[in-house]
Structures are given as structure tokens and as C-alpha cells.
Inverse folding.
């Protein structure tokens, strides 16, 4: 069975701090995909990144970066120099990519960035 | 831009009522999904559909049914609403593994349903 664990339920930081959100996954598939979504207070999930299991290259997009390590089954997300607008619930998700793209979500991490 | 719309942002229904939640996407996506989101539980898949009139159960289908008569519309039905179905319901669509697909699921704004 597939499983995604986000051990941090809530994180609170002060603006400009760096923060890392942890994601650990379990799957028996050799081909799979990992995702991060952001859910701001408005409620709509916003896609941030998708990574397939064959691509362990780290990714950087502005203040956001992702560290994928198959050896530890982790796909961690770091926000550098956090801002108040980063306050949201962040979800890590996993799919086997078998065609239907059924996503298994973690329980989410609520990030609060205080001014 | 892909647009996924849901018929209501907020809905209040009474126990035992039949409830319809509607979802429409405008990008001709083949796949559509219904999730519910509860605090501390994340998003859980209720049902999904990979084609018109096709449906498959997700992880928590009990108490729900779905209908997909047209490609752009996917309805979630609560045959007899109960208080434990009070939740946020999120619809999503996905284009499949077609060329140029970004592979992300596109989510609607959600419907917060309260059953009293």
C-alpha cells in the first residue's frame, strides 16, 4: 500500500527564516510520482511541483527548493527567506502513475509565517 | 487556464437529505476526482472517473455515489446525508498522459458541506 507521512502538523516561523517541510513516502512501485501542493486560506489547492522516481535531481524555483532522496524515501520542501504569503497548508502526495494518477496525500503541514 | 468549478462554496443540509455536489471542468480532461478533506486526515479519495459513465471507488466510497453523464461534469451524491459527512469536498480533474500534459491534478475551490 502507498503511504505519505508528513510528521510536522504545524510549523510557525518568523518572516525571513528558512523552513523545511518533511515528507516521507512508502511505495512498492518502481515508477511513481511525488507532488507538493499548497492550500492557502482561500482553500484551492495550488500545484507546486511534480517529480518522477527516476529523477533525483534537486529542484529550485525562486525561494522554493525540493530535495528528493530515494535512499531515505523522502521528498522535502524548503522555503528560503519565508514570507507571510507563504502561510498555508502544504500537502505532499504520491501516485503510481498507472494511468489514473490516483493521488495519496499526506495529512498536510500547516505553515504560519509571522511578520 | 484550466478551470474547475464547484456549484457551491458553502452548503448546509439536514440529516437524511439527498445532496448533490456538482463539479465542472472546461479543459476536456478525461479524468475527474472527488476528495474529502478533514482536519488531521488530509485529502482522501472518494471516487474517480476516467471516462464518461465510468467510475471507480476510491479509498472511502461508503455513503457516496457519483455520476458522469458528460465529460465536463462529475457529480458527487450523498444519498442520505449524515452528520459524519460534514466536511470539505474537493473536485479535481486531470488530463491524463497525453502529450504536453503537465501531469498535475487541477483542483476546484471546494465545497464546505455542513450536515445538521
Amino acid at each position: 500500500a502507498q503511504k505519505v507521512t508528513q510528521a510536522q502538523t504545524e510549523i510557525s516561523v518568523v518572516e525571513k527564516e528558512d523552513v523545511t517541510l518533511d515528507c516521507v513516502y512508502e511505495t512498492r512501485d518502481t515508477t511513481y510520482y511525488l507532488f507538493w501542493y499548497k492550500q492557502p486560506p482561500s482553500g484551492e489547492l495550488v500545484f507546486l511541483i511534480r517529480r518522477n522516481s527516476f529523477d533525483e535531481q534537486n529542484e529550485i524555483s525562486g525561494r522554493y527548493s525540493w530535495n528528493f532522496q530515494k535512499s531515505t524515501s523522502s521528498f522535502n520542501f524548503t522555503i528560503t527567506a519565508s514570507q507571510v504569503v507563504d502561510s498555508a497548508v502544504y500537502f505532499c502526495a504520491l501516485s503510481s502513475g498507472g494511468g489514473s494518477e490516483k493521488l495519496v496525500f499526506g495529512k498536510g503541514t500547516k505553515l504560519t509565517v509571522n511578520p | 487556464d484550466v478551470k474547475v468549478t464547484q456549484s457551491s462554496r458553502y452548503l448546509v443540509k439536514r440529516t437524511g437529505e439527498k445532496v448533490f455536489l456538482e463539479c465542472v471542468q472546461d479543459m476536456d480532461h478525461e479524468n475527474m476526482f472527488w476528495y474529502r478533506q478533514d482536519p488531521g486526515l488530509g485529502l482522501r479519495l472518494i471516487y474517480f472517473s476516467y471516462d464518461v459513465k465510468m467510475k471507480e471507488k476510491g479509498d472511502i466510497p461508503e455513503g457516496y455515489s457519483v455520476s458522469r453523464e458528460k465529460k465536463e461534469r462529475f457529480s458527487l451524491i450523498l444519498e442520505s446525508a449524515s452528520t459524519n459527512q460534514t466536511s470539505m469536498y474537493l473536485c479535481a480533474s486531470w488530463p491524463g498522459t497525453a502529450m504536453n500534459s503537465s501531469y498535475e491534478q487541477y483542483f476546484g475551490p471546494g465545497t464546505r458541506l455542513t450536515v445538521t
